[in-house]
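User: structure tokens for this one?
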Amino acid sequence: MGKSFVRGAFILMLAASVNRVIGFIYQAIIYRLIGPEGMGLYNLVYPIYILIIVVTTAGIPLGISKLVSESEVGGNRRRSYQILWLSLLILICSGIFFTLLSYSIAPLLKQHVFVNQKVYPIFLCLLPGVIIVSISSAFRGFFQGLMNMNPPAVGQVAEQVVRVFAGFTMATLLLPRGLQWAVVGISLASIVGELIGLLVMLFIFFRSKPVNFRMELPHYRDCIDILRQLIDMCTPITLGRIAATIMLTADSLLIPVMLKKVGYTTSMATALYGQLTSVALTLLFIPSVITVSLATSLVPAISEAVAQNRPYVVSSRTSTAVRVTIIAGIPFIAAYLVLSNQLTAVIYGSPDSGVFLRTLAIGGLFAYLQQTTSGVLQGLGLPAIPLKNMLIGGMLKIAAISTLAFIPGLGFIGIIQSYNLYFILTAVLNIISLYKFTAFRLVFLNDTIKPFFAGICTALLFTKVYTLIFNAVGSASAAVALSITTGFPAYLLLVILLGTLKSSELKKIPVFNKFF
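Assistant:
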């Protein structure tokens, strides 16, 4: 438990970065293969699949992480394993039940819920993944509670590699049968990837088990105590994730309907939704590699500090996480504001999506802060607060989508602006809550002004390098690549020189520490 949460976050971030790079290459190829309508079909049904997984896992993996973290503080490794076995039993039963239930109600979803009927076989192909993800989540929560991020990281990379090769192969083979069946192939590939990721984690788990390892459930009374703690912790977390997933599902149902009402055909509405979700939002959330890794590591790290009654550590880790989120997000926002059309054209062959990405960039930094601050609040044992803030923001977003789409001159851009309103409101409410419950405070000059100044300089550098390279060689791909590879290191150097990112923090991160 003495391991730095920054190190743990870095390991997850490194794995997520590898996954994101592989995933981007894969998604760009698939997008060019099946187009925005094909990606729209996948993204119309995927939120419903995620909702089923959220209900199935019921926040238990995060509860495992927190309980195991507390057991490790007390030096009780045996209890950590007992928490895992009890939780795993619950998740297996839950996974089987909700998989069967989903198959039984699938015809009703086809008749009353799915906007585009082509998504029905895609949905059926995704359902076997529910039980696989449930089992995987138990082991991920266990390792995260131990502050050992290596097994989940390796499993994630294995899952992504298999998903990419299987997805491209199946989509190519099935595309002659129609766009719908190509998307079915992509869905099947995701299930194969999840299975491989689980098998890799199981291999690491049993290979590293202690000599006195036993698969035993806790005593009856301990079972009741663990279940009570899981219910207490997981209920608000589950409600929060259900709320977030319901909002995604509402988007997938509401946005195509709104677009049809303002004059788009079903095919055009599906394609626009595909551009928004598969291009603009995917690029916007590249920094979630960092923010989600931070949020995941913060839950056991903050829980550990709270259990040890060390409020200064809570404040310090919260301040570091928020500052790192701001520092990490700003160069991406700069790139999205000045190179949006070029990025979407080079990566996806979809320059028209650039305006969507540029619009989303306005609220992007708040989206990243929302993820990090939610992790802190959950680690503090206050998961109901981000849930409440998310619901408030979600209601605003739904109201804005239903209103702004009909304003002349806005249309689909109005729908995108609704996302910005949601990001800003939820992040601000979370930060206000952190100010109330912790000693965390932002140092205005160091944590905001200096990174923003560095971001402005980086945006100017992006523009200058892109123009020079494009005029010299006439290649947008080369110009974008050199702009990014020049701008990001320059930004990192600038924030270090300005003192926003300290060498003491870099020492905690593998790779960087050898230079200090």
